Amino acid sequence: MKYCRNCHIFYSNSAAACPKCGIEQPEEAPQARPADRSEVRRDWLWLLIGVPVLIGVVYCAVLILKQLG
């Protein structure tokens, strides 16, 4: 869906111009920034440490609940 910044409506991608005001909106491609190597490494580290820790916490909670009940 395209968005008209003049009259603030969404319209079809197949339309060349806004059907309400007739102004043609420029195509804007999203700007993807290159991934920083240290940021990627930090994300993987959080994933590799966080998932086992989460599993361990859930496992301990289940054991505690079994002991209480």
Write the layout of secondary structure elements.
Blueprint (H helix, E strand, L loop, with lengths): L1 E2 L6 E2 L25 H32 L1
Antiparallel strand pairs: 1-2
Describe the structure.
The protein is mainly alpha-helical and 69 residues long. The chain has a domain at 1-26. It contains one helix and two strands; from the N terminus they run E-E-H. It has a two-stranded antiparallel sheet. The radius of gyration is 25 Å and the shape is elongated. It starts with a strand and ends with a helix. The mean pLDDT is 88.
Supply the key terms:
69 residues; mainly alpha; two-stranded antiparallel ribbon; 1 helix; 2 strands
Helicity level? 40-55%
Strand order of the largest sheet: 1-2
Mean pLDDT: 88
- In DSSP terms (H or I, runs of 4 or more residues), the helix count works out at 1
Radius of gyration: 25 Å
Number of strands: 2
Strand content: 5-15%
Q: What class do helices, strands and sheet pairing give?
A: mainly alpha
Oligomeric status of the shown chains? single chain
Q: What gross morphology would you assign?
A: elongated
Question: Which stretches are poorly predicted, pLDDT < 50 over at least 5 residues?
Answer: none
Question: How can the largest sheet be summarized?
Answer: 2 strands, antiparallel
Distance between the termini: 55 Å
> From N to C, what is the helix and strand string?
EEH
Outline of the structure:
By secondary structure, the protein is mainly alpha-helical. The protein is 46% helix and 6% strand. It has a domain at 1-26.
